[in-house]
Design a protein that fits this description.
about 270 residues; alpha+beta; DNA-binding; about 20% helix; single chain
DNA sequence: CAACCTGTTCGCCA
DNA sequence: ATGGCGAACAGGTT
């Protein structure tokens, strides 16, 4: 499920635990979600307070520190990626992890739970006051002013031989964009997903930038547990083999492009 | 039973 | 060295 708006929503679920110390945790260090990091180091979180958190694209970080005399010193960075099937939720303090609950942070009044059945997601940990390299990657967030025409042109020029759909899925350029958002953006921008990036006109690049920012902004505003993407968006039609273009009712086309199932409207997109 | 999947990474190739 | 592509990863769902 998780692309940028879902990640933003899941990440906020743990907000209720801010300012509270971690009193215990539950994890199985050999689970695949801990690949590349030392899961035993996570024990350091016990006694530390959840200070704040942030989401960047599909990545999230939770910062922990000591809380003495009301002053918090940053100590630890917990990174979480939800992969294909990851979720975060809050449970009661007596929560017992089931098969796919790979990490549980216990506070006095609740449990903060990371679940991921397929384990394409990932947990990372860093101990120290400064941001680790896996967090500060230098990739601009789409909602920021650094994600602008100048930066976009550099990125598109570097991938001219790839279909534009595949380029939209590259996290080093389009941080947080996934399969459905890429299709949504190209549909609104009237660009065929299989077009080679180098074939885009100057105007089309401008439209692509505008629609990318629009889809990110609107989807963050609307998508949550009980809220769906706005009516009239392609996402509501794209999975069905009989899906139709929300604008004209034209039957959608489907193909694998950039390694993923892609849907588009042959009438809207050129 | 087989095919499919909203993501990333790796190895191979040009 | 750089960029593009297909396979692999695991388990649930259709």
């Amino acid at each position: 499920m998780p692309e940028l708006p879902e990640v933003a929503w899941y990440h906020a679920q743990w907000d209720v635990g801010r300012g509270q110390p971690i009193v215990d945790l539950a994890l199985h260090a050999r689970k695949r979600v801990f690949r590349g990091s030392n899961a035993r180091e996570l024990r350091r979180l016990i006694g530390q307070t959840l200070v704040d958190s942030e989401a960047r694209g599909k990545r999230m970080v939770f910062r922990f520190g000591d809380n003495k005399r009301g002053r918090e010193n940053l100590r630890s960075w917990l990174g979480i990626h939800l992969g294909m099937t990851g979720k975060l939720h809050v449970a009661a303090a007596n929560f017992r992890p089931a098969k796919h609950d790979h990490l549980v942070l216990y506070q006095r009044d609740r449990a903060l739970v990371f679940t991921d059945s397929r384990q394409f997601g990932r947990v990372r940990f860093h101990h120290g006051p400064d941001a680790p390299a896996w967090w500060d990657t230098g990739v601009p967030e789409i909602g920021s002013t650094k994600f602008n025409r100048c930066w976009l042109d550099l990125f598109l020029d570097r991938h001219g031989k790839a279909p534009i759909k595949a380029v939209l899925l590259m996290q080093h350029g389009f941080s947080g964009i996934g399969n459905w958002m890429a299709d949504e953006i190209l549909w609104r921008a009237h660009i065929l997903p299989a077009r080679l990036t180098s074939s885009l006109t100057c105007d089309e690049r401008g439209t692509l930038l505008k629609e990318t920012k629009f889809i990110v902004r609107r989807s963050i505003q609307t998508i949550g547990q009980n809220a769906d993407a706005p009516r009239g968006w392609l996402i509501h039609e794209r999975w069905s083999p009989t899906g139709r273009c929300p604008k004209h009712g034209t039957a959608l086309q489907h193909a694998t492009i950039g390694g993923r199932t892609t849907a588009w409207c042959a009438r809207c997109q050129r």
